[in-house]
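Just scan my protein:

. . .
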Amino acid sequence: MRAVFYAVPVRHVCAAGLTTLLLIALSASLVFGRIDHSPRHSRLKVAVDAGHGGSDIGAWYPQFGLVEKDINLSVAKTLVRQLEDQGFSAFLIRDDDVYIELGERADLANRARADIFVSIHVNRFPQDTRCRGAQAFYQRGSAYGQQLAVFVQEELRKVDPTNDRKAIAADFKVLRETHMPGVLVEIGFATNAHDRQLIMDPGYRNAVAAAICRAIVRYRENGLSTDNRSQRSPGWSQRPCSA
């Protein structure tokens, strides 16, 4: 509820002075509710990193038309739109086919004072093509990052119930050097036929973005952040993350 200010005649304002006005405003706030902290002042900021880019192609399987850098950017752009629909302030580390060094990606997120960092990738393991399933990674030793990754993994398994992978700790540079809770999401294995078919399906990629979005909403609703901007506000989020 917004603070209520009483109308006071100008001649009384001159006589009462600034101190009296402040007391009036404070009294009204105590009686009618706290001063409004709307989402525009307290939105969580999410940095979304589309892995690879430019000369760094990532996983590349031209016989299937699979180019990781392009898939990552597609998912990242969808995720940003969905997060903005939920009242977050979200931005892309790269919004085009350009190469950005890993340390610079972390630095961009840090300079923007992001509250959450998400990096999107496609996995591969040619040594065993049976390996499959989307998976979330968090920086070893980060309790907030771990909880975010657990939420992401739970939501990913709703997209593909046959996925039995769990969120695990790792030591990726973009997670190690960012100053906020973060998660790196591998949306599937390009080296597995089942996953590859999913990855090439725009519907699946949209569903993965929606799953990550739902996880971040859950993170926000639980107030799990080292930043005061994680406090919940009843004005946030009018519609669910949609695929």
In short: The beta strands are 45-50, 60-61, 66-67, 89-92, 116-123, 135-139, 168-170, 182-189. The radius of gyration is 22 Å. The mean pLDDT is 83.
